[in-house]
């Protein structure tokens, strides 16, 4: 098969990593595999950067040149991404107007002919995150008439007026508008959420889409929304179980300079602006755990912890880890991994930790409930319940060795069920089913 995937970038967080892993494994399986992205960071020839189009005026083209220069410095200089977007908006007056009025920005003409980026017409198009400021949903009707098109939901943005997760709001069911959370990601300047919702509904009504999600929780939202599908299917995210697997806990701790015997917990910290990851509850959970387990070793990987109340604690703060092998060592070094999210379609770090034999304490939200077997592979607590998470950690550390070892073994078995090989087989099998149903599309290039 010739498979074209579409995503925000070829390097980054969960969605980027998942799309890249599929793209790479498809090639290893002998498929023709391409990845079209809004931002390309690798030198891989099969990664295709979606062109941004030519700005409509001479001044606009000059501004766009400045935006490209700023974009090339992302990751090296702070603020370059914001500068690049600001210049891009000035270069495209319609995009600037959309941003100013709170509408979804749509001036991304380069994505109109995604199949044309490929050396040969793809048989199938598999879209991941489409809200990374690079894609216009308005091209979906045309694309979906040429090749079978899969929309892989990573969050709830596709069915809302702007937000990636609605958490405590049900307006998405009726058409949004009067939004109580304009500031949450991706933020809006003004409330155009009803218009955004209606535009999405109109686009989907003209498209033929196959919709997948990594959890039944997220797929159920799609089925209850304005997003119709030729077929809905749950295919969970996969992890590399050759990397994320049980190992020597003592060696992992020694490599980090940690005590071999002290109880140890690992947190993945997030920016204070990321309400979905709930850093406030994470800080409270750390305080509650260290008060009740004074010898506790706390590891935090990711954004620096902003809470002043934690400054007196001996917390090992580590930057975001891109190397999967290093991340696996962190999981192995911990007795427990703690995940405090308010919303999560699928906690990839949850399955990674379990696959390394580390039980997980997590919020009972979204797809996480489908991943953890409470009492066997970890503990589930209500969202925002820092005290409950501390209770779970204390109970685990108070248990006898046999009980803790049994949970570790169960966690490892459960994590291994979410293998990348399983995900690859599931998607390739689904692609074949779709192409068998629609033989007139895809294989001939439309």
UniProtKB/TrEMBL annotation:
GO terms for molecular function: glycosyltransferase activity. It holds the Pfam family Glyco_trans_1_4. This is Glycosyltransferase involved in cell wall biosynthesis.
């Amino acid at each position: 098969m010739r498979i074209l995937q579409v995503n925000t970038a070829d390097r980054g967080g969960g969605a980027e990593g998942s799309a890249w892993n599929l793209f790479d494994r498809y090639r290893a399986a002998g498929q023709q595999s391409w990845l079209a992205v809004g931002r390309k960071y690798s030198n891989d020839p099969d990664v295709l950067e979606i062109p941004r189009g030519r700005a409509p005026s001479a001044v606009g083209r000059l501004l766009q040149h400045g935006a490209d220069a700023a974009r090339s410095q992302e990751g090296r200089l702070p603020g370059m991404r914001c500068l690049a977007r600001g210049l891009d908006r000035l270069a495209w007056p319609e995009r600037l107007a959309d941003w100013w009025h709170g509408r979804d920005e749509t001036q991304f003409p380069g994505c109109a002919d995604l199949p044309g980026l490929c050396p040969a017409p793809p048989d199938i198009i598999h879209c991941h995150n489409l809200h990374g400021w690079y894609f216009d949903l308005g091209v979906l009707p045309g694309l979906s008439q040429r090749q079978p098109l899969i929309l892989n939901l990573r969050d709830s943005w596709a069915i809302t007026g702007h937000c990636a997760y609605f958490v405590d709001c049900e307006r998405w069911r009726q058409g949004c508008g009067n939004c109580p959370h304009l500031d949450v990601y991706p933020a809006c300047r003004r409330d155009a959420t009803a218009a955004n919702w209606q535009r999405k509904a109109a686009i989907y009504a003209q498209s033929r889409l196959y919709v997948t999600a990594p959890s039944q929780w997220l797929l159920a939202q799609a089925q209850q929304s304005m997003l119709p599908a030729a077929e809905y299917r749950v295919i969970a995210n996969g992890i590399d179980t050759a990397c994320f697997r049980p190992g020597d806990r003592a060696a992992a701790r020694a490599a980090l300079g940690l005590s071999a015997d002290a109880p140890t917990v690992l947190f993945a910290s997030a920016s204070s602006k990321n309400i979905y990851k709930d850093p406030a509850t994470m800080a409270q959970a750390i305080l509650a755990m260290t008060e009740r387990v004074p010898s506790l070793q706390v590891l935090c990987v990711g954004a620096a912890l902003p809470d002043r109340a934690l400054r007196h604690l001996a917390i090992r703060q580590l930057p975001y880890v891109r190397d999967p092998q290093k991340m696996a060592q962190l999981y192995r070094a911990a007795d427990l991994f703690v995940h405090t999210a308010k919303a999560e379609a699928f906690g990839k770090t949850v399955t990674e930790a379990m696959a390394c034999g580390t039980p997980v304490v997590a919020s009972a939200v979204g797809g996480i409930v489908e991943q953890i077997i409470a009492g066997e592979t970890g503990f589930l607590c209500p969202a925002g319940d820092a005290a409950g998470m501390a209770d779970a950690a204390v109970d685990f550390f108070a248990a006898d060795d046999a009980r803790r070892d049994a949970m570790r073994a169960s966690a490892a078995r459960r994590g291994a069920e979410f293998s990348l090989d399983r995900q690859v087989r599931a998607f390739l099998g689904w692609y074949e089913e779709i192409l068998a149903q629609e033989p007139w599309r895809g294989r001939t290039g439309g």
